[in-house]
Write a structure and sequence with these properties.
single chain; about 120 residues; alpha+beta; 2,3-Dihydroxybiphenyl 1,2-Dioxygenase, domain 1; eight-stranded mixed beta sheet; 3 helices
Amino acid sequence: MNILGTSLRVCVDDLESAIGVYERLTGAEAMRFRRAGVSVAAVGCFFLMSGPERELSVLRNITATIAVTDVDEALEDLRAVGAQIIAGPVPTPIGRNLVARHPDGSVFEYVDRKQG
């Protein structure tokens, strides 16, 4: 698996206020999208998320988002090391993702930019 980078997840009450802060800190412009009732802004290496608590409580269990070149390759490697696949692979607004629990109990989302 080729890991391209990691994004940190930050749950916020006021997405608009948070976007201004993180844009200033990172020098990056926010890319916005919605997923499962949650508003998301990708700003630099941060995913800012705001929405209903029932949705955010699930997202808080994911340690970080890991960008990879190919989710299918990540799936193979994760299975080879004994990870439990919790969800996916599924299409997202920007590519595909899967969520996996590593053998140590850590939960990560893996994403690629491939459509489909």
